[in-house]
Amino acid sequence: MSAMPGVVAVNTFREAVRDRVLYNLVFFALLMMGAAILVGQVSIGINRLVIVNLGLSAISVIGLVMAVFIGVGLIHKEIEKRTLYSLLARPVRRWEFLVGKYGGLLLTLVVNTSFMTVGLAAALYYVGRPFVRSDVTVLVAIYFILLELALVTAIALFFSCFSSPMLSTLFTLAIFVTGLFASDIRDFGALTNDRAMEAFTRALYYLVPNFHNFNAIAAAGHGDRIPLALVGENTLYAAVYATVVLVAGSVVFARRNLK
Amino acid sequence: MTRLSPGRASWKAIVAIPLLFAAAAFLQVRIDAQTRSDGAQQEQLLVSSGALLKKLSLGYDPLLADIYWTRAVQYYGTRVGEGHGDFALLDPLLNISTTLDPHLIIAYRFGAIFLSEPKPIGDGRTDLAIQLVKRGVAANPNEWRLDYDLGLLYYWRLKDYQPAAAAFLAGSNVPGAPFMTLKLMAASVAEKGGSIETSRMIFAELYQSTKDPEVQKMALKELRALKAQEDEMHLDQIVREYEKRFRRKPASIQELISARLLRGSPVDPAGFPYEIGPDGKSRLDPRSPIKPPDQ
Amino acid sequence: MGTPAIEIENLTKDYPSGFWRKRMRRSLDHLSLRVEEGEVFGFLGPNGAGKTTTLKLLMRLIFPTEGTARILGRSIEEVAMHADIGYLPEQPYFYDHLTARELLDYYARFSGFGRAERNQRVARYLELVGLTAAAKVQLRKFSKGMLQRVGIAQAILHEPKVVFLDEPMSGLDPVGRREVRDVILDLKRQGRTVFFSTHILSDAEMLCDRVAVLVRGKLQGTGAPGEIVSINVQAMEIFFEMTDGRQLPQALAKQAAQTGDRYRLEVAEAELYASLDRLRETGARILSVTQVRPTLEDYFMQLVGREAAAPHAMEMVTR
To answer: Alpha-carbon distance C194 to C4, whole Å?
Structure first.
């Protein structure tokens, strides 16, 4: 296995870490945790629910913002600033570069999410609740959020290969929203009793990345058990879908005439 | 020399793309099966307040209303098949839909029937149904069908004839409503309370005005039960005639026919013949699918 | 002779242009070249001639409309071949947030060196380009000249067999340029092939074994710098001044160049004496008469001028 993607990944991670944006976001997340604790104090008895809900939502939203806003610039910036020129003269294939960028951003997101998870755990602990078995669901929910981010990052990166950051952000968010409501769109198509519409929405459902698969925030709030099989299937789904997006990105990137 | 092409190996990638999409679709099917089969995985509403959702929706209320309405229908459809009669989220879902879009008439009408219908077909909560429809009437003063639904709920489920008549009357005053029909309904109910003619009028209206085949079936069922009731009343009259003549109760329909009081063997709307019970009263064939109307 | 270091055959690049992107603008027209191993090869041409396009095509940053190329006998599509080449792009730009040392270390990783080796090379080449003092400074703070030096360092630190430099002297002060010249000469001494593009002809004259001249995407000629200019017939230059307030007749005034009181007239050798006579008649005082060795510059200007006048004229001067 080639080591090139790893080299690029580490550098991408380093770049992200040195970029001040990261710290602002983490700070914001911690702020949210604080707010959650405050709200929890007000409504007695549902401390845990509120903190978990708010905390997980914050982790999800901030992760999403990072994935999209950093992701859409990753390749585009390199092409615009022409930092890519001397690099591609090295024995590194374009797809290796792309995968490396992906890995670097993913690593950044994982590290970030980990910090925020610690913050969430601290908030729960502060509220005075000991950790119970069912808290595992919270970790699973966070894992699902990471899967979601992995997929969004791949999509943002794909657009970054050929489109400006503004358009890429638009497209990525459009796909994200569509994927979030994919099952509703399909059900709606079934309700219309129009064969063509039904077929179309069904096809759309299977084509679009179904982000609703990864939403376990409500379950985490109630402490429900999430079956292992689902964890495995979601992981596979995210992996397969991210792969197809990256492959498509590689094809586009490989053929592109750099300015 | 031949032309240099960009990625030489890219054709492999291009072939891989549809294959990977197929794999993703396959996994999606499995994930869907997984979330469905897992009974413990209740559907959760993260935000159950319609008002809050309205604020969060950033102006896309009608779209969100459609989404929640779709989910309500899906929720009902899935659970009615499971047969346990638990529709805890139906009322919240319908309430959210109608809060986001107060003019979503179909949601009110759906709730009217399926919230009040006894388990396991419905939620068995007439109170919630009435609450929902009242909100619908308030938000849609020109929609006479909602007044009708309200009257239906009072008449059918609660047998509370005063408010039922009031609702029908209110509906009859709405421009564009079937004026005569509703006025008649209001008058009958006010005067006689529950009666076969009134019920027939009401359920006939339900049958005509609904597009939902399930609701049509329900209305038809009621109408048939009413017809059976009527038939039985006629038969009882004939039985009394027989008693007068022969000083005893008839043992079977055949005797009535022999006594020339009946021309042929009468059948109920489902095609099953009526019988005379041991108490001398007419009754339905036990095998008949027609159930006596709610007493 | 062996395998040439660089072989270019009919390399052509069209760009879509115009509002509807329908028209094609040809920025490189069927370029064919050979560069032998160990040569220092200068790729000359005015701005916009297609020099950078050629280099980008060779580096596979863009893809040709027609034609092929080979480096060290291997197709340019082979990524592995890149281990043996180095590239300095025009106006290079590198990751801002890294220091000079970190950048070179990053690039060195792509060549698969171990940590000790990397540290060694990075230190050595930082010193070679005179950036040892700035090793720990973030590239964000570097001047253009410093960036150029980092660029050269990254191009050669893996000791490639062929080095491609796009305008290596640009942005450097005379001291810097001398240093780059020394680096190039040093590379030549090590037996490496250097292919560099420039529009500064004096550098090319001094350094190159051979040059190629590119104007408006078309190759005008290749050969040793001396050869290219020998086609021109030698001329004579006459310096003179006007005395007693006499004016130069129109015809001569047009031909002569004036600086202050002095005039310079260039004439073909054969016409020298006739011109001198004519000047004396007009009352000019002859100051000096010397031979003019035409430079690459003149050849160049001629070509450019001619190209501008007749875009389809082509003059091949090859060995």
So the answer is: 12
